[in-house]
Design a protein that fits this description.
The structure holds two protein chains of two kinds. Chain A is an all-alpha fold. Chain A has twelve helices and two strands. In chain A, a hairpin with a 2-residue loop joins strand 1 and strand 2. In chain A, helix 2 runs antiparallel to helix 3, helix 7 packs antiparallel against helix 11 and helix 7 runs parallel beside helix 12. Chain B is globular. The chains are: A mainly alpha, B alpha/beta.
Chain lengths: ~280, ~350
């Protein structure tokens, strides 16, 4: 690189850690730009949690167990599934104008390929920022429903640690799946339909809408073989004790397997996308 | 290739896109959906050019000529179908990360700033992306502010800015990391004259004081005349002219017109060594041909006709470019005096 001599410029020590991680804050800055969202977010969560609580309480009014789960387990699974879904709520389509879909459509994707961090890394920091913001709401919601006695705490320290690790791996799996849908924009130029279909399937087969144990056997088997269940069903099953802690290593290994496979697929797709990128408009 | 004095060198640079075209006739919509007609379209065709370090050049051409595609190959965004390109000594599309430190760009209406947050925070985000040390960042920002007056509006969310304010922030964003080469694709489109002049002053400063190389794409010929000594004219994806504006004027009849008003109607206007551009009895516009000068034409007109008023009209650059664009330039390059 040819540098330009600027009067008064002193040589700067080279940092070992690139500061691009600070892109994490974009998610919060975007939310702060629309303060109404700070009201809508907890309100939406409160309505969802209340309705699901009422729904499952009504379902269990004439039975003590369904799908192998008690009311307490079902409530914990369902309410926490809503909170987990909240983590990636904004990341599903960045609320600002820097989503892959909009950037490809408007041609601003050009800038992603002109920066000293790869488009994949830029995307990762932006997603991580939005997910961290969503996680704040999820944790707040968790504290509220735990304090209200709607759910029980995890089974001891081991249970909490296993749940946390499983939840983290599940979020990585969902991040990669979402990334694949987003990168499809480079080929499709409009992935609205794909994204809607994908997120419906993801929510259904991960356990956000209904706990997976309530699914018909065929769907349950299908969900188990696909990566979606890693996102919600596995961590929640560990939390409520449907999967005993003694089986946790196999489950965590399966989640890790999906992380590696989907990570490689995503890396491959980013490299292909960077070769076929076109810029809409002049 | 590889001349150290050259900031940009392109040789036989070509970009071909595959375009999906619709069928015609029965079931055309269904057939087009599943099996569209695919055809190759060459947008940039064996473009050979170079830009020296510290030079500001205008990349001109009508809409669809291949200017923006050329810039996107030079910035490394697009991978050329064939040909060679070196920007600051690197192949931009093969080494995008390193190339990013060498280049900055503004793509007209496309913003790289974050739409919903204040511009100053967007610039801070770019500082983090480019890993710019704080002292350099502060100095750059102060310098940009002194010319572009950014501090008057940089705490406003980008979505609430006027076009002129936003593009000034875009300029700052493009040069924040101190790149030696800057690509500006129609940066002043839609700006008012005051902001345009402010932007031009900024660009002149960046070239003269900071030694940056600037490649400017624009349809604003006033901007070209005020900023660029050299123009590269592209049409049909090919380089059609490489030289100064004066050379372009000389090659395309860019001599001034002589507008004359007669004391009484004149039926036929004939001037040796000149052609009549327009004539309506009482008035005529005459342009010198070949070696004939404007003074020769004025003298001839006064000696031959009852002239009451004569005015020399300088070449209108917009008209000149229109004539050049319409001159079926696709057939052969006009000049290649400075091809690499």
């Amino acid at each position: 690189m040819t540098s330009i001599a600027i009067p008064g410029a002193e040589p700067q020590p080279r940092r070992t850690v690139h500061r691009s991680w600070r892109l994490l804050r974009v998610g919060v800055l975007n939310e702060r730009a629309f303060r109404i969202r700070l009201v809508i977010a907890p309100l939406t969560l409160a309505v969802q949690l209340y309705l699901y609580d009422r729904l499952w309480t009504a379902v269990f009014s004439h039975t003590t167990k369904a799908g192998g789960l008690t009311l307490k387990q079902t409530l914990a699974y369902s309410l926490m599934a809503l909170l987990i879904a909240r983590i990636r709520w904004n990341a599903r389509g960045f609320p600002g104008r820097d989503s892959v879909a909009l950037s490809v459509r408007e041609g601003t994707i050009a800038y992603w390929f002109m920066r000293p961090i790869s488009p994949g890394r830029f995307y990762m920091w932006r997603q991580a920022g939005d997910m961290a913001y969503g996680a704040i709401w999820a944790v707040l919601g968790y504290v509220v429903i735990l304090s209200a006695g709607l759910i029980a705490p995890p089974h001891g320290v081991n249970g909490a640690v296993v749940f946390a690790v499983s939840l983290l791996l599940g979020q990585v799996v969902l991040y990669y799946l979402g990334a694949i849908v987003d990168i499809a924009m480079f080929w499709m130029l409009s992935n609205n339909g794909l994204a809607r279909m994908y997120y419906f399937v993801q929510d259904l087969l991960s356990g956000v809408f209904v706990p997976l144990p309530f699914m018909p056997a065929v769907m349950l088997t299908l969900a188990t073989w696909l990566p979606f269940s890693s996102g919600v069903n596995v961590p929640m099953s560990l939390y409520v004790g449907r999967i005993p802690l003694s089986h946790a290593p196999q489950q965590l290994a399966l989640q890790l397997f999906w992380c590696v496979v989907l990570g490689l697929v995503t890396k491959f797709l980013w490299s292909r996308a960077s070769r076929r990128v076109t810029v809409q408009g002049g | 290739m590889g001349d150290a004095d050259q900031a940009i060198v392109a040789k036989d640079l070509t970009k071909t896109f595959t375009i999906a075209r619709k069928h015609e006739g029965r079931f055309a919509a269904v057939r087009s959906l599943f099996d569209p007609i695919r055809e190759q379209r060459t947008v940039v065709d064996r473009l050979t050019m170079s830009v020296a370090r510290g030079e500001i050049v205008a990349l001109l051409g009508p809409n669809g000529a291949g200017k923006s595609t050329s810039i996107k190959m030079l910035t490394g965004i697009l991978t050329p179908t064939s040909g060679e390109v070196l920007v600051d000594g690197r192949v931009p599309h093969r080494d995008r990360i390193a190339n990013a430190h060498s280049i900055g760009a503004v793509f007209g209406q496309k913003t790289q700033l974050w739409w919903d947050i204040p511009a100053r925070q967007s610039l801070a985000l770019l500082r983090d992306i480019y890993d710019i040390p704080k002292s350099v960042y502060d100095r750059q920002l102060a310098e940009f502010d002194s010319i572009l007056e950014l501090s008057q509006f940089w705490d406003t969310p980008v979505r609430n800015m006027s076009l002129g304010q936003r593009v000034r922030c875009e300029m700052a964003g493009a040069m924040l990391h101190d790149p030696p080469i800057v690509f500006l694709d129609e940066p002043t489109i839609g700006m008012d004259v005051v902001v345009k002049e402010q932007t031009r002053e900024f660009l002149r400063y960046q070239v003269q004081e900071r030694g940056r190389t600037i490649v400017l794409t624009t349809h604003d010929m006033t901007e070209v005349a005020r900023l660029c000594e050299r123009v590269l004219l592209i049409n049909y994806g090919r380089l059609m002219f490489d030289g100064t504006l004066e050379q372009l004027k000389a090659e395309h009849g860019g001599k001034p017109h002589v507008n004359v008003t007669f004391a009484e109607p004149v039926s036929v206007v004939e001037v040796p060594g000149a052609r009549v551009v327009s004539h309506d009895g009482m008035r005529a516009a005459v342009a010198p041909d070949g070696v004939t000068t404007t003074e020769d034409v004025v003298r001839s007109l006064i000696s031959r006709f009852p002239v009451v008023n004569v005015a020399v009209e300088e070449t209108n650059l917009e008209d000149l470019m229109r004539d050049v664009y319409l001159a079926k330039l696709g057939e052969a390059p006009v000049s290649a005096s400075r091809q690499a």
